[in-house]
Specification:
Elements: H1 2-17, H2 40-44, H3 56-59, E1 65-72, E2 81-88, E3 97-103, E4 110-115, E5 122-130, E6 142-147, E7 152-153, E8 159-167, E9 170-175
Length: 183
């Protein structure tokens, strides 16, 4: 295998070092200007192509890194299991695309979730207090849930942080949040 690689490398080196092939016989070569007629400024400066303008798509990534943290009201001391989750679209809508769901700390009600949504999208944050047996990948029916009162716009480069978000939880009609587990 190595002799073949060496031969290919040698061939590539020789091919790259060849002078350009002559002009096709159907086209006569252009006459060269005598050295006395070439302006000094042209002769001294080689032709340099202008750099291509930066593409707007290359300036910003397609996915944004978003870190969200805060607290859920009514989660402290509950025997049930509190969760926070982040979605594209209304997080209370069963059709919302949930990007992340994680446990809320029962001692202080705090939570943290990191997601990677497409840049330029609006995110919503919801919380639910589910039966003690519920898991992030197996939600249980609950009457206690809530939603952050504002949209969060994912736009920028680097880590985008939304801190100290408080999600209120209240009683409502029974529902099960079909949210995938994603950290």
């Amino acid at each position: 295998m190595r002799p073949l690689l060496a031969a290919a490398l040698c061939f590539a080196t020789l091919a790259c070092g060849k002078p350009p092939s002559p002009v096709a016989p159907s086209q006569p070569p252009a006459p060269a200007a005598p050295a006395s007629e070439v302006p000094v400024a042209e002769a001294a400066s080689p032709a340099v192509a202008a750099p291509a303008p930066a593409s707007p798509a290359a300036a910003e990534p397609t996915l944004c890194e978003v870190e969200l943290s805060g607290a859920v009201t009514a989660a402290v001391g509950s025997p049930d299991t509190p969760f926070a989750f982040v979605a594209i679209g209304d997080c209370l809508d069963p059709a919302a695309k949930v990007l992340g769901r994680d446990f809320v700390n029962k001692q202080d009600g705090k939570w943290f979730i990191e997601v990677f949504p497409p840049c330029g999208t609006d995110l919503t944050v919801c919380a639910s207090v589910e039966p003690a047996a519920a898991m992030p990948n197996a939600p249980g029916e609950t009457r206690r849930y809530g939603k952050l009162d504002r949209l969060l716009h994912a736009q920028g480069v680097g880590e985008i942080e939304f801190k100290e978000l408080t999600v209120p939880v209240a009683d409502g009609p029974p529902r099960t949040f079909a949210t995938p587990f994603a950290r």
